[in-house]
Specification:
Number of domains: 2
Protein name: TetR/AcrR family transcriptional regulator
CATH topology of the largest domain: Tetracycline Repressor, domain 2
Order of helices and strands: HHHHHHHHHH
CATH architecture of the largest domain: Orthogonal Bundle
Oligomer: single chain
Keywords: DNA-binding, Transcription, Transcription regulation
Pfam families: TetR_N
Largest sheet: none
CATH class of the largest domain: Mainly Alpha
Shape: globular
Number of strands: 0
GO molecular function, one term: transcription cis-regulatory region binding
Length: about 200
Amino acid sequence: MTEQPGRRERKKAATRQKIADTALRLFAEHGYDAVGIREVAAEADVAVTTLFSHFSSKEALVFEQDEDFEQRLVRAVTDRRPDEALIPALRREIHAMVRHCTADGAAPLWRMIEESPALRQYEEAMRQRHARSLATAIAADLGLPQITPTCGAVARFVVDAFSVARETDDPQAAVDEVFRMIEAAWAVAGATPPPRESVAV
C-alpha cells in the first residue's frame, strides 16, 4: 500500500528530530568538537547520507530550528492581521522566539555555541540570511520592487534583537527596549505600508 504524503512527512520530521536530539545529547555529553558526523548517525541509527539529507553540516545540527525561525519571521510580516502594524507583529514574534530559546535547560547549548568559533560563524551567517529574508518580506509588504536601506537595516535590527535579548538577565525587557528604538527609526523613516485588504471569510 502506498504511503500517504502526510504520513511520509511525519516520518521525515520524526527522523530529523531524532537526529537533532541525538546530536545535541552527544555534544552535551562529550563536547561539540569531540563528536563526529558518523558517531551521530550511528547513535541515531541512520545512514550518514540520511543525516545529510536533513542537515547540510555538523553545525546545522545545533541550529536545527534555523529554517523554522526564518519562516516565522517572514510569516510575522505576511500573515499578520490586516489591522496589525508591522513592527508590533515582529516584536510579538521575537518575544515568542526568545521565550523558546531562553527556556530552562537552554543555557548549556548557548555556552557551547559561544565556545566554538565554527558555531559562532555559522550563527552569524544564519542571522544574515534571516535578515535578508525578512528585509525581502518587508519590502514586498511596502509594495517596493527591491530591498531599500531602511528595510535592510530594520530587518537586521529585528534579528539582532533576538541575540541581544538572550544574553541579558531579562530577555523580554531587552526585546521591548530594542523594539522601542526600532519603532522610533521606523517612524522617522516614514516607512508606512499601503492599507492591507482583509480576506473575506
